[in-house]
Amino acid sequence: MLYGYGLSLLQGAGVTLAVALASLAIxxxxxxxxxxxKLSRSRLxxxxxxxxxxxxxxxxxxxxxLLVFFGGxxxxxxxxxxxxxxxxxxxxxxxxxxxxxxxxxxxxxxxTFRGAFLAVPPGQREAALAFGMSAWxxxxxxxxPQMLRxxxxxxxxxxxxxxxxxxxxxxxxxxxxxxxxxxxxxxTRQPFLFYGAVALMYLAFTTLSEIxxxxxxxxxxxxxxxxxx
Length: 229
Hints:
mainly alpha, 78% helix, MetI-like fold
């Protein structure tokens, strides 16, 4: 049916999913760090986090991807000899793709987590501290569970956009399913077939993701009255 390229597309789909999950992990960490910086009392941290979210959200994803992969590679190889390293350094496309997408969506998750933290009533944290809990216990048992519940709708939307944004890694030579589909389409002259197959794979990923996030939202909402949503 796919002219023998079905397995190749599935392998590419595995690479796409790996890029998406690794990028989400980086974005999650950067988002938490950025939200913490924006809510801190330090003017310098707030300024740095604001600059990060403003600039990254304003620049197209493809531009950043090309800038990191090609520009970063030139910059590294220009500076490496100054530190005694004369061999040419090749940036791995997977690493470049994951770091770039994670860095981009870290800016979006910064705003998501900032709003979610602000949605948690401050009186609950104060009450927990007065009860004798440590700051770490308050964060783990009071703030984080409620923050995640508030952040989940926006987090799921960002994940759906992120997983579709992985398509741009094909431009730097990573053998994801878009790259595999391009090779198959070129060899068979059936672009509609193979790019249509990729579209269905992305649809499957996003549909399963929506089901998973819905179940997670139901789990986090246990004990919460609907009127408080």
